Amino acid sequence: MTEVAFHFGAPDRLGYTCRLLRKATATGARLQVRATAETRIALDAALWNLAPTDFISHCDAMAPDTVRSRSAVVLMDAGAPVQPDFPILVNLADDVPQGFEHLQRVIEIVSTDEQDRNLARQRWRYYTEREYAITRHDLKSREEG
């Protein structure tokens, strides 16, 4: 069954996403990030602005297969189908990704914004109603500790 994790309280959602992607790709993981066009563009820029030693190979989901096969991260539109060859999905969109159950893991990154938190609660309910076990990571308590 797909693992689902919520990372709550990210004060800088894009910065946190970049750190998470850097850490995951360092282990050889391949990830897809699902987001609105505006967020995808901002994340792409943030990834290009990482230090050269922290570079993460990434591309758009519509890139040719040769480019996608060499990328550790694929950035995809919120409405696009999930990519089974990238087994970990980072969801920055407002809804539950269609087809997520075919993936190894879904990571929901939730900011401190109240609207974002309310939408995350709806996604949490969706997963729990379908009996997915959820791992909760409270980022705010990590900062305080």
Report the top-level CATH class: Alpha Beta
For the biggest sheet, the summary is:
7 strands, parallel
Give the full name of the CATH homologous superfamily: DNA polymerase III subunit chi
Average pLDDT reading: 95
Number of strands: 7
Distance between the termini: 32 Å
What is the helix tally? 5
Uncertain runs are none
Question: How do you describe this structure in short?
Answer:
This protein has 5 helices and 7 strands. With 145 residues, it is of the alpha/beta class. α1 crosses α2.
What would you say this structure looks like, in words?
This protein has a seven-stranded parallel beta sheet with strand order 3-4-2-5-6-1-7, sandwiched between helices. It has helices at 13-26, 37-48, 65-69, 114-129, 139-144; strands at 3-10, 31-35, 58-60, 73-77, 88-91, 105-111, 134-138. α1 (13-26) packs across α2 (37-48). By secondary structure, the protein is an alpha/beta fold. The model has no long low-confidence stretch (mean pLDDT 95). It starts with a strand and ends with a helix. The protein is globular.
Give the secondary structure arrangement, pairings included:
Blueprint: E1 3-10, H1 13-26, E2 31-35, H2 37-48, E3 58-60, H3 65-69, E4 73-77, E5 88-91, E6 105-111, H4 114-129, E7 134-138, H5 139-144
Parallel strand pairs: 1-6, 1-7, 2-4, 2-5, 3-4, 5-6
List keywords for this structure.
single chain, 145 residues, alpha/beta, Rossmann fold, seven-stranded parallel beta sheet, 5 helices
